[in-house]
Design a protein that fits this description.
24% strand, NERD domain-containing protein, 8 helices, NERD, binds zinc ion, alpha/beta
Length: 305
């Protein structure tokens, strides 16, 4: 088994994290942010299970694809020689009810999006995309409810849902699926990975301006802004975590680039954005080392390589 494409936090989740920490979020955005974190944790948990598979398959995680103008997102795609597993991971928690193809929190009218609709749509799009690439592999879709504290009452037995108690057997099935991959399958995986987009067109972030946002570096571990720089190390006053100052600066630079993609990255703006780095030289050296410098003197700025 090979991971062809690894999972990373989405741009939306990272941007919401920055905004949450630097200006706070309204209730609906905060819920969206916490849901994204929870979903991501579930997906990472599932990655931890698939990484132990020994079968001959290629795993592509976390794909954002587009076909015929329609975006679709895939949590996990597993390519075997004669079939494809399409997997969506849900980290829902608590008691829920399945009623007339709708999903409710038990005892309330609160309706969740039915993951069945999502995965069926995804299957159709993927099928068309594969056809356009000259492939006709059958697709096996599954929605995995990974949280052991999740129950879904009254689900018809033929829905492609799997619960935590069924996961070991499902993983065994994945492992025992006969497969002999060829170079062509690897080309397909490469092609699909190359079509992955990093930014969704459907992402809606709350409005923000540079002036509104709290400046400063935060701890990568506990997200506290109570950090200080000592020699070449950033030290957290809350959890005592240490991070090389260059790494902390670059983390802040990537965050700035994500929030303000149109803005020029200059030493001065990063100095202000980081807030706590005492030496301009230190910022200059870090930017020079990791980014590409454009222009000279006072008008110079940096771009991502
Ligand atoms: Zn900390």
């Amino acid at each position: 088994m090979d991971f062809y494409k690894k999972r990373t936090p989405s741009a939306e989740m990272l941007a919401l994290r920055s905004l949450y920490l630097r200006m706070g979020l309204a209730d609906s955005d905060r819920n969206q942010y916490f849901n994204l974190i929870k979903g991501y944790q579930g997906e990472v948990l599932f990655d931890g299970m698939t990484k132990n598979l020994t079968c001959d398959c290629i795993i592509l995680n976390d794909l954002l694809l587009s076909f015929g103008g329609n975006e679709f997102q895939i949590d996990t795609l597993m390519i075997y020689s004669a079939l494809i597993y399409l997997i969506d991971v849900k980290n829902f928690e608590g008691d829920h009810l399945y009623d007339k193809e709708k999903l409710y929190r038990l005892g309330s009218d609160y309706e969740l999006k039915n993951p069945l609709n999502q995965i069926q749509r995804c299957e159709t799009q993927l099928h068309q995309m594969l056809q356009s690439l000259g492939w006709k592999l059958p697709i096996h879709p599954s929605v995995i409810f990974i949280n052991p504290d999740f129950t879904l009452y009254q689900t018809p037995i033929d829905r492609p849902f799997l619960y935590r108690s069924q996961l070991n057997r499902f993983l065994q099935k994945l492992n025992q699926t006969p497969s002999k991959l060829t170079a062509k399958h690897w080309q397909l995986a490469e092609k699909i990975a190359s079509l992955h987009q990093t930014q969704s067109k459907n992402t809606k972030l709350p409005a923000y301006t540079y002036g509104q946002l709290k400046k400063g570096n935060f701890c990568e571990k506990c997200e506290s802004f109570s950090v200080t720089v000592k020699d070449r190390t950033m030290v957290c006053g809350t959890c005592e975590h240490k991070e090389p100052v260059g790494a902390a600066i670059m983390r802040a630079v990537r965050e700035f680039g994500l929030l303000f993609p149109g803005e020029r990255l200059t030493t001065n703006i990063i100095m202000e954005w980081c807030g706590i780095i005492p030496s301009k030289k230190c910022i200059q050296n870090t930017l020079g080392k990791h980014l590409e410098k454009c222009g000279v003197g006072r008008g110079s700025y940096y771009v991502f390589k």
